[in-house]
Amino acid sequence: MATLENIVHHPFFLPILYGVVLVLVLPLLIGYLVLLERKIMADMQARLGPMRVGPHGLLQPLADGVKLMLKEDITPTEADRWIFWVAPIVTFTAGMTALAAVPFGPGFQVADLNVGLLFVVAVSALGIFGIVLGGWASNSHYSLLGALRSAAQIVSYEVAGGMALVSGLLLGGSLSLRRLVEAQHGEGAWFVFLAPVGFFIYFVASVAETNRAPFDLPEAESELVAGFMTEYSGFRWVIFMMAETANMIVVASVATVLFLGGWLRPFASTRELDFLDYLPPLLFLVLAAYCFWRTPKQPVGIQKGVMALFALICLGLAGAEGWALTLPADSALRAAIHGGFWFLLKVFLYLYSFYWIRFTFPRYRFDQLMRLGWQFLIPVAIVHVLAIGSALLLRQRAGWGLWPAMGLATLVTLLVAAWLAGGKERPAYLPSEPGG
Description:
By secondary structure, this protein is mostly helical. Helix content is 69%, strand content 0%. The protein has helices spanning 2-8, 13-44, 60-70, 81-98, 116-125, 127-137, 141-172, 177-187, 191-194, 196-209, 221-224, 234-259, 279-294, 301-325, 332-358, 366-397, 402-421.
């Protein structure tokens, strides 16, 4: 018993436990995020989406996994077999490793690094090597062209996204993801309100970095079949797709930590709004009531059972959130339960915006995509960083308030952005001279 107690209190026990939970839960979570995306797409297009496998199609991710594992694994004859095999693993491992430094709540983080943000950005950027290697090792012109497109796109938008992150670092004064959340609590405002332009630039860059529509040119079905994944099949193909979803979770988590207050509830520093602590159990109770109301309306018995099961799960979550409210206000367990709810809710809303954009906006041409990155986002991001730095100097040296200084920085950045957007650019496909 003493040995077990020593293991539990070992400084590496909780990080290893959290890491195992991530490794076990993340693949299943990715499968159901894909199902959620298909359901949202179907709803926007007045369809039902996957409905055949399990009640309301809830077992579709499991069926897809079995199908892909049983599909024939084809390797091109002239491909570099070893690199062709390891490329998708490199991409997926980079996304998984980057999550190690992300605090999913005040009590759930694999590693609290003092350079956590730098670690996440650096490790997640390694995923481009898997894409380039996969396209090159396939010995296919389509795959190589898709890999080169992806490399150019990711490098371009990582510059703009990195500059947007710098604006948050200037406000937080730390590379530690946990301290960035604490800095927003100390300032009494999320950084998205202090630096909205930085958040917008990071949001656009995160959509492009993860190859999501309308920036999915490396995988453009109308042009490249599947881009760098053209020669991949079976489970190797799905590893690339899992890596894309894992990267979406990474960028959503970074945005939540740096700009959206992390695990903090809205207006966490305002005591008059403490009633918002009751929102999580109330939300789960509403969901439970809705599921109970829908249960008798289901046409099949198993669907009624699953709907009732969801209602019971929501009741259990409501009970857990309500029980956390009975704990002392400074309780670590209460902070972990409520913090986890708010963090996951923000990540889900960020991911939902990815889905909404995919089914709303048309795809860019590649020249338009690169022009947006290099001629607009990067200059605006640089100006924004300079404006944030100047605003902080005005606050420290001239005694300006935080909000007036940041408002001036935002105004200057928006003026520069309007000037850049107002410039007339000749389309790349037109001749340089009349009659040319």
